[in-house]
Design brief:
The chain has about 230 residues and is an alpha/beta fold. Helix content is about 25%, strand content about 20%. α6 (about 160-165) links the parallel β6 and β7 (about 170-175). It is globular, with a radius of gyration of 18 Å.
Length: about 230
Amino acid sequence: YKNYDWHDAMRQTPPGYLAMPVLYEHLPSTRHRLFSLFETFGLEAPQIAPPPLLHLPSPPSPHVVMLAEQIKQRCARAQGVVFLQVDSRSSHYAYPHADELANGLATRGWFVLSASKLAQPSDMMHELDLKKFALMDSIHLLGLLRAQLDLRIVSVASVFWSVSAALGAPNLGMQHFPDDAMHNYWYPNIMVITHRDYPRLPPPCRFLAGSGDYMLDERLQAVFFPAFV
């Protein structure tokens, strides 16, 4: 979080709310990070981990509304929208097959909104300009699309796992690095592609990649082949 602009978070805190950065346990023995937060403040934890809450500025910014409407018009004949977020700054990971993955989804009738760079986006794709769309703008855009269209998400393990849970959007999540505490940030809306078997992840919610379905990069992070994804 050393590069995060906390002024943005504080500015968007609703009146009467207290904003506190909180550290939580991320250990294999921890049931879930939300339960860890409840215990931190001495609160009775719920039986099931509730999805995160999103507090978005209202109304949305004009450029967010405009793009949402443009996407709605462009994908009138599509099955729905797939949001691609296959790069992760926190783990220094860039998925090298974003174009092939996007093309495969578009061929299957989906409109692709990509937060990752695309070399040759087609009429069924739109590359999100991250210089114009801050994180909260991107989340607000997904919220608008979720309310109007069939929105699916394909993402690497990142903040968008929590975002997808808050939006209630199906998410095919690639767990690209080994993490025995991964169940700390997993939610039931996420189907996980993984090259390791995680016993604390429900078996119906994971796709275990075989040796021919992925390779390891120079940092030993998994690169799942587009055909498998």
